[in-house]
Amino acid sequence: MTTIDVATTRAMTATAAGVLLLDVRTPAEFETAHIDGAVSVPLDRLQNHLPQLTDGAPGQIVLICQSGARASTAHAALFRAGLSTSAVMTGGMNAWIAAGAPVIRGRQRWSLERQVRLVAGLLVLVSVLLSVLTPWSLLLTAFVGAGLTYAGASDTCMMGLLLARLPYNRATATDPAAALAQACRR
Known about the structure:
With about 190 residues, the chain is α/β, with parallel strands linked by helices. The chain is built from 9 helices and 7 strands, in the order βαβαββαβαβαβαααα.
């Protein structure tokens, strides 16, 4: 997998034509803060747009997510589709913002990772509290623990994928096909 840092990404977008910034976070995360010129194609909808990307990508594709995990998944999907010109921006938007790079801000929403921590924590808390009534409720705690262990080992999060489908995370969806068509014409 090819990775590039924030400084290299900034330099590429400032000097090189044909660089596509592809943001694979949820539409809500994209609305909260995104890089000027980035195209929002949520990871769960990337497969639908692979033909458009493989046929019309303008050159280098820089994949962006919140921290880098979803962008790595997108990189693998693009590679399997025959696109070898993509790179993952290390650290994602967290690194971009920490570097003081410019962002376009919109309505503030919780990141998907924060939502996962909240739901996992609530499930464990409820399970422990219910264990006073029935010890079987601790199976929910074990299930959450197994899910978090799998997420850490595989670098994929099924809870995150499920939460990404909630209306809260889809509130301001853009049309990825139209945005990609415009970006590919540049």
